[in-house]
Structure formats: structure tokens, C-alpha cells
Design a protein that fits this description.
The protein has helices at 4-7, 10-34, and strands spanning 36-51, 66-70, 73-82, 87-94, 98-102, 108-121, 128-134, 153-157. By secondary structure, it is an alpha+beta fold. It folds into two domains: 1-34; 36-167, no CATH class. Strands 1, 2, 3, 4, 5, 6, 7 and 8 form an eight-stranded mixed beta sheet that branches. β3 (73-82) and β4 (87-94) form a beta hairpin. The protein is elongated and about 95 Å long. The chain crosses the membrane at residues 12-30. Keywords: Membrane, Transmembrane, Transmembrane helix.
Amino acid sequence: MVDKKKLLTEENFILFIVILAILVVMLFIVNQGTSKKNSSIIQKNISYNIYSLKGKDKFNGAFFLGTGRINTEEYYVFFSKDENKGGFFKDKIPVASTLLVEKDTVPHVVRNYAIETTIKETFLNGKKVIIDTIVYSNSLFARPVPKSIGYEYILVVPPGTITENQIYEPL
């Protein structure tokens, strides 16, 4: 006759937990191995106009684009209009990932991005999961901008905005 108390000893309990964990891991591996995953990347962009504002210093001109540095990152700073709210907001885009283009048109910024659509069907539950993600962003774990896009931002400015050999006169 087998003593039931001896069956549930500490060693048998640990062995049971290890075997259960191995079975769960094997089931997960089988599920991942038999799941179907399709991905596609679509290039898209958002475009919005940018504006200049007149301040107390009576800056005259049709367009003003500022630059600034936060820590070691350099940014273009400008104002855009929120069409839904009817007001203006300050925006900034990184200089390093921006292409400046001079054109005789309304100044605007274009943000290029790519959306990756992943469709995953698993063996165990048979469900299709559709996940849309932006391929890159300004986060710590960001992917680089896809080569097909080139620049994350395109800043279209009036002719004469980009100047060379600017003279800086300290106050």
C-alpha cells in the first residue's frame, strides 16, 4: 500500500511544478510555431500649414522659423493652426530628421511615417489579431526611419528663408 503522505513530499511537488512549466513552454512554442503572421508596411504622411506671428518686437515679414536646442538635440520651432479649435499652437521638429525645401507656396510641414499592419492567426484559439503600429517614433526603442521615406519631416518654406553666411551680432 502506498502512503499518500509520501506522494506529496516536497520533492514530488517541485517535480510536478517543473513538469507543468515545461508543458506550458512547449505548448507556447507549438502555438507560436504554427501561428501565421503577415506584415505589410504602408507609407503615409500628414501635412499642415505653418504660420508666423508678430510679437512685441514688431517683427515684420511673412514668415519666421525659429531654431532651438534642448540638451544636445536641435529643433525647428514654428506655429501651426488647429483648424478644429480655431487657435494656434507651437510645434517643434528635430533638425536632424528634417529636409528643408524652398518653394513658392504656403509654408507647411509634412510628417512622413509608415504603418506596419500585422495579421496574426494562432493555432490554439484560431483568432485573427490585426495590429497597426507606427514603424518608428521618437522613443528610446525606436526603429530608424525607413530608407524608402528618407526624412521623417519635410519643411516647405518660402524662397529666401534659407540663408548662408549669416552674421551673428551679440547684444
